[in-house]
């Protein structure tokens, strides 16, 4: 009773120091030393007007194959997203992949002047302003977009080079079905053609059933207006279909009674109307983003293998990971709730013994489709599985990453 109790504040301070020392291995500063103050972040303009990221975060997009970049117009053909740095499932707008712009410039469109016309086999043709569209009931949905050329290559070294032509964002807009119902559809209408405002008019033929199902006329992306590289002020979202169908700078939709071969369609689709477009649904597809090509494991021990899976057939139901080149498969953990036609994050806890091995992932979607191996793709297309291997259609084959004994990671298809 006679002993003096230490002040509660002093007790808490000493306790915090002990906790820090035991949990973090921290040492108290030597006599006469004080911890350095963190550098101040300067630049009020970036801080106030439009937030900038830390200078220590250096993830960037890269120019991606197809044809020489810059081209004759001074434009980069494709721009690939840095999947190796991705966290979660949403791709930041500034890191979203970009498909080539058709023409010599990216259209600069005043949204106050922009119009969307719907005509053709409808009871009444209608023209919508941006204000008209924003007065209608909106929806917000998470969807991926993927270029048909997104596939592994023996020349690729990183996951950005093999699979960087896909991204996933939160899109907000009006369901196309709402607009089509407002116009009224005539009997016999079975397709629609969507056209953008690019210098070379991009247009795609899409089954009307898809348009009445889940197509979205989007004016916002990740909580802000759609970026110019992504089609400002309007972009058509065709969930699950290859990227070329997602017309940018959307200005016109014509409802028709047959499949039309347009600029976007030529060279991408079978000219037989019964299978045109319908066979070009994406996936199922997955890729490990860590560890992946050009990354380095510091040594043996426990690692969380992480990656992305997606499918045009709907939500991802299962992802499996192999740590021995496909001999044995283990169920991975799906992070969060898998959304339809959206990237899904998966992970698998792995204890690496320091020996050379190969990592693979494969996924299954809600309609039972299973991601094939590269050999299965080759057999389907009756193509030799050799150094020149390539297929004319979509390639959603398994991507292997070879982990060397020194911890370096390499493209298993090289």
Describe the structure.
By secondary structure, the protein is α+β, with helices and mostly antiparallel strands. Helices cover 13% and strands 27% of the residues. The chain has a five-stranded mixed β-sheet with strand order 4-3-12-7-8. Strands 5, 6, 9, 10 and 11 form a five-stranded antiparallel β-sheet that branches.
> How many E-type strands?
21
User: Share of helix among residues?
Assistant: 10-25%
Unreliably modeled segments: 1-36
Rg (C-alpha, Å): 26 Å
**Looking across the biggest beta sheet, what order are the strands in?**
4-3-12-7-8
Classification by helices and strands = alpha+beta
Q: Can you write the helix and strand succession as a string?
A: HHEEEEHEHEHEEHEEEEEEEEEEEHEE
Q: Can you count the helices?
A: 7
Keywords:
single chain, 414 residues, alpha+beta, 5-stranded antiparallel β-sheet, 7 helices, 21 strands, 13% helix, globular
What is the fold's blueprint, element by element?
Layout: H1 8-24, H2 44-48, E1 62-63, E2 79-80, E3 115-120, E4 126-129, H3 130-135, E5 139-146, H4 159-163, E6 166-175, H5 176-183, E7 191-196, E8 203-207, H6 208-213, E9 216-221, E10 224-225, E11 235-237, E12 250-256, E13 285-290, E14 301-310, E15 316-322, E16 330-331, E17 333-334, E18 344-352, E19 357-365, H7 374-381, E20 401-403, E21 409-411
Parallel strand pairs: 3-12
Antiparallel strand pairs: 1-2, 3-4, 5-6, 6-9, 7-8, 7-12, 9-10, 9-11, 13-14, 14-18, 15-16, 15-19, 17-18, 19-20, 20-21
